[in-house]
């Protein structure tokens, strides 16, 4: 027998046998046969290539599901629905409102569904007219400096750039905003007007919710009138049936293997054990706490300087960006809920959407334990909204507790007053409600369905990547306050951060999930452009990064323009944060001027706005004569508004303009990014 082809060929050459042997012919036939089958098999596979990758590779299933789920019209038609409620949400409130509207649609014989515009082909709006008595409602939040939320960005751009014929589309819009900000509900107002321009029919006037006042009251009042308009427009009547149908059903997961159970991950199972770049809102980076030190020198308040270690993460940030921090609820509050409801917090469960067509299968990562859900996924410290009061009624065994919940859930003047005083003014959270209404014992899985998601907290980054490329710094005030019921409410994120104190190098360092959120708040492109920074309190945090970056440029030998900082706090010897750093920047020439206001170091209170008025010539010299940039960071409710008024006044007086001209000048500064604000209420 022959051992190999090589040996046979070699012997053929040596013995000068015929050029084409029987074996050669046999090999040729074999090769041609293989080639034939390979060619036609490949052709057959390619013709069915749309199916094969999705059936063989599980990783592709999400993409095929996304494609099939993008047509909300098909879902409406296949399930006999006529109402779709879209939401543009950054913190979850708009999504919550959308769910409440969709649920109430059943009372008006309008079966509804909630839809995320990011997951839908919004061009299908042109087909809404094909569904009898159809209605599209938009719950849209305005975010940042008049921007759409992340999940509504594509829809917003589609409206801006497209010219679809939306005749036959019936719609209504509710906006979520905050009056302390300049661009109050700007996105919702634009969408409402743009839909009408494209031919759609407005069924009910736009509603504008103000989160600085009582957005729940705004929403409930608008929603009541919305249904009146809907009944009038479609010639229908309310059935009077209250819909308390659960959106999610409980699934016992006691037999699920431990490695398949979520333990606090935001999206991907075991994502904290197996970190993968890039890091974002659904995939945060588990950062070590490198530094955590107190900035206040004395007094009963606390302000922390914290540094997150990002070495090796591949994350990059720019000066002016924000960092998102994922908090967790205190074990004390979580245990209290388990105690009040006599529940096993370590039981493993899942909540599965009863709407099989919904792209949102679970309200939070499932399966998990109740302890995990209450610790990482659910907001148990904010004031519950009225719909939660309504859902709790059936669980109250005491008639007095029932009546109180019914009153607060109602839209009567008395009900609104009671809700405002007992929930909002007294600052009760769900734990306090269960304590003060002891007969209320909701099923824990239902409570988990009702509570909103725990949101990440955003902080201005107080460092420059030029100086600190491997760490992110933040400046955070510890939030603790006593309510009118003598309870101490604690800020979820800052109280967690206060506990994360780095130890010596031999022990594991404390960690917390973070990701970077990009900002439009930027230094001028040219380092020689002069700037004025106004940042009292922790408003200084962001400017610390600005100063570091300019100081770095100066040390590199680059020309650096004037830097003027206005900072204020209560007392110089108590809460003058980063004092030594600032004085050093003044001494080395990076900071041209440092204007300080200590409000309580003298009989009459003195604020940065007073100093700004006193330095009108300097202000106009930089923003008017030298075309410099002006930045404001801090409280939106009063400080930022007062600064804006002063700027307009200075422009009028020093620029010799009328009030109208001064307002236009300041507006142009904003459009040119020469006047920027990063404020909060």
Automatic annotation (TrEMBL):
GO BP terms: response to hormone
Domain (Flavodoxin-like): residue spans on this chain: 83-227
Name by which UniProt lists this protein: NADPH--cytochrome P450 reductase
GO molecular function, one term: NADP binding
Pfam families noted in UniProt: FAD_binding_1 (PF00667), Flavodoxin_1 (PF00258), NAD_binding_1 (PF00175)
Gene Ontology cellular-component terms listed: cytosol; endoplasmic reticulum membrane
CDD domains to which the protein is assigned, alphabetical: CYPOR
Transmembrane domains' residue ranges: 20-39
Catalytic activity of the protein: 2 oxidized [cytochrome P450] + NADPH = 2 reduced [cytochrome P450] + NADP(+) + H(+)
Positions with a binding annotation for NADP(+): 301, 538, 599-600, 605-609, 642
Organism: Rhopalosiphum padi (Bird cherry-oat aphid)
Organism taxonomic ancestry: Eukaryota, Metazoa, Ecdysozoa, Arthropoda, Hexapoda
First-tier enzyme category under EC: oxidoreductase
């Amino acid at each position: 027998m022959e051992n190999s082809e090589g040996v046979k060929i070699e012997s053929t050459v040596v013995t000068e046998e015929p050029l084409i042997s029987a074996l050669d012919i046999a090999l040729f036939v074999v090769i041609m046969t293989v080639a034939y089958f390979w060619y036609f098999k490949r052709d057959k596979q390619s013709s069915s290539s749309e199916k094969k990758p999705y059936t063989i590779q599980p990783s592709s299933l999400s993409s095929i599901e996304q494609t099939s789920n993008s047509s909300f019209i098909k879902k409406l038609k296949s399930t006999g629905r006529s109402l779709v409620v879209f939401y543009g949400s950054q913190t979850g409130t708009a999504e919550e409102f959308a769910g409440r509207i969709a649920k109430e649609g059943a009372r008006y014989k309008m079966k509804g569904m909630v839809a995320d515009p990011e997951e839908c082909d919004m061009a299908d709006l042109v087909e809404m007219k094909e569904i009898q008595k159809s209605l599209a409602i938009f719950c849209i939040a305005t975010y940042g400096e008049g921007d759409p939320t992340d999940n509504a960005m594509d829809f917003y751009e589609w409206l801006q750039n497209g010219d679809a014929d939306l005749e036959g589309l019936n719609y209504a819009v509710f906006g979520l905003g905050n009056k302390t900000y300049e661009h109050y509900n700007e996105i919702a107002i634009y969408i409402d007007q743009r839909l009408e321009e494209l031919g759609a029919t407005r069924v009910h006037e736009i509603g504008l919710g103000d989160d600085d006042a009582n957005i729940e009251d705004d929403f409930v009042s608008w929603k009541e009138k919305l249904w009146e308009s809907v009944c009038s427009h479609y010639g229908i009547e309310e059935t009077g049936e209250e819909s308390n149908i659960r959106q999610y059903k409980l699934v016992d997961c006691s037999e699920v293997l431990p490695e398949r159970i979520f333990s606090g991950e935001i999206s991907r199972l075991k994502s904290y054990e197996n970190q993968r770049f890039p890091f974002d809102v659904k995939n945060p980076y588990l950062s070590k706490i490198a530094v955590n030190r107190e900035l206040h020198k004395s007094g009963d308040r606390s302000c922390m300087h914290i540094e997150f270690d990002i070495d090796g993460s591949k994350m990059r940030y720019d000066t002016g960006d924000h960092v998102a921090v994922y908090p967790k609820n205190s074990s004390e509050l979580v245990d209290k809920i388990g105690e009040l409801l006599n529940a096993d917090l370590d039981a493993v469960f899942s909540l599965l959407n009863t709407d099989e067509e919904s792209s949102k299968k679970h309200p939070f990562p499932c399966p998990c334990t109740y302890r995990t859900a209450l610790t990482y996924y659910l907001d148990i410290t904010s004031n519950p909204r009225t719909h939660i009061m309504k859902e709790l009624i059936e669980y109250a065994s005491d008639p007095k507790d029932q009546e109180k919940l019914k009153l607060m859930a109602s839209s009567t003047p008395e009900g609104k007053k009671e809700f405002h005083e007992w929930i909002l003014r007294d600052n009760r959270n769900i734990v306090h409600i269960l304590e003060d209404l002891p007969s209320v014992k909701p099923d824990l899985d239902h409570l988990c369905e009702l509570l909103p998601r725990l949101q990440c907290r955003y902080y201005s980054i107080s460092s420059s990547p030029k100086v600190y490329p491997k760490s992110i710094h933040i400046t955070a005030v510890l939030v603790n306050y006593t309510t009118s019921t003598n309870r101490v409410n604690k800020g979820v994120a800052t109280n967690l951060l206060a506990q994360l104190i780095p130890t010596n190098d031999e022990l594991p360092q404390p960690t917390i999930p973070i990701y970077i959120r990009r900002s439009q708040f930027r230094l001028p492109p040219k380092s020689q452009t002069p700037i004025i920074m106004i940042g009292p309190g922790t408003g200084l945090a962001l400017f610390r990064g600005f100063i570091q970056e300019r100081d770095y440029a100066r040390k590199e030998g680059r020309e650096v323009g004037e830097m003027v900082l206005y900072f204020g706090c209560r007392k110089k010897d108590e809460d003058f944060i980063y004092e030594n750093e600032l004085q050093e920047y003044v001494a080395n020439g990076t900071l041209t001027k440092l204007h300080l206001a200590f409000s309580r170091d003298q009989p009459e209170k003195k604020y940065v706005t007073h100093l700004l008025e006193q330095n009108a010539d300097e202000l106009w010299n930089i923003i008017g004569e030298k075309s410099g940039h002006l930045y404001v960071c801090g409280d939106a409710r009063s400080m930022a508004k007062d600064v804006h008024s002063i700027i307009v006044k200075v422009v009028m007086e020093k620029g010799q303009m009328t009030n109208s001209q001064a307002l236009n000048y300041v507006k142009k500064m904003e459009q040119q990014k020469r006047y920027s604000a990063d404020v909060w209420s």
